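Inverse folding, one chain.
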């Protein structure tokens, strides 16, 4: 099993009946990200565009799991071609996962290996490490995996003083969960600085490590979904759990050992994804 594992669709990334709409999207990754930014507005950042998110979008937009359903909704709001930028109030209300999944889907459609990575950013939360999901794809020209934040449009970059290239995230901007786990375990990072909204700490780092493995196994669930190992209180985490988490960190960072990641997900029931209602999301 090699990188080509990520060049085919998962049930989540498959555009289904909308696949032919990808053909007119830009080939360049930076331009493709701009097109995606014209289709989605992040629920947390909508106010920056002067948009108030209606309550009903919590049940029409934010609960759409597969990419095909997301595209159904995007085209229901505005049937224009996908390369047509929508006004902010006419975009799908989503999360960082949705930007990453759409980019991942288009790249896979084109035969480019692409996957979602779960980790922690340093640009939305200064001096802290916020939960964040991005896309990682194989750059054939550079012969390396490259992290891309498809959410970072011009408004985001100005608002958060982003000076780096969003299509090639530097190591100090986005830390994958396995690396963050190691930094917290050995004391380099205070786990209390890792999380989102009102939920911070080692349990969040543990949860994101498991979610990274889930996504690397091509099960691209929501950020608020769980697994038995993510839902355990800290006091119930066993020595065996810690050994498994250490192993997961090793096989996902700095390199993803694809066969071992997939085998770990398949054989450890405590890693199996569980869908949770939106109201149970960390807050």
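Residues assigned per position:
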């Amino acid at each position: 099993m090699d990188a080509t594992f990520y060049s085919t669709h998962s049930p989540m990334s498959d555009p289904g009946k909308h696949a032919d709409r990808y053909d007119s999207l830009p080939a360049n990754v930076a331009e493709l990200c701009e097109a995606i930014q014209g289709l989605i507005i992040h629920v947390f950042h909508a106010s920056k565009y002067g948009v108030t998110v209606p309550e009903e979008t919590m049940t029409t937009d934010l609960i759409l799991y597969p990419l095909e359903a997301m595209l159904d909704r995007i085209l229901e709001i505005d049937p224009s071609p996908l390369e047509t930028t929508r006004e902010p109030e006419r975009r799908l209300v989503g999360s960082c996962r949705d930007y990453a999944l759409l980019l991942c889907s288009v790249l896979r459609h084109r035969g480019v290996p692409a996957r979602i990575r779960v980790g922690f950013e340093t640009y939305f939360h200064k001096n802290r490490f916020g939960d964040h999901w991005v896309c990682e794809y194989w750059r054939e020209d550079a012969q390396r995996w490259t992290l891309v934040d498809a959410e970072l449009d011009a408004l985001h970059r100005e608002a958060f003083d982003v000076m780096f290239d969003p299509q090639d995230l530097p190591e100090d901007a986005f830390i994958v969960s396995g690396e963050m786990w190691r930094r917290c375990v050995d004391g380099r990072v205070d786990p209390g600085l890792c999380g989102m909204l009102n939920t911070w700490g080692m349990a969040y780092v543990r949860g994101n490590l498991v979610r990274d493995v889930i996504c690397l196994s091509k099960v691209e669930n929501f950020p608020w979904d769980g697994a038995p190992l993510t839902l355990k209180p800290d006091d119930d985490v066993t020595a065996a759990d810690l050994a498994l988490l250490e192993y997961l960190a090793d096989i996902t960072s700095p390199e993803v050992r694809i066969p071992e990641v997939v085998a770990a997900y398949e054989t450890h029931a405590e890693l199996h994804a569980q869908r949770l209602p939106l109201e149970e999301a960390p807050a």
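The first strand starts at residue 40 and ends at 42. Strands lie at 40-42, 92-94, 114-121, 129-139, 144-148, 174-176, 194-196, 199-200.
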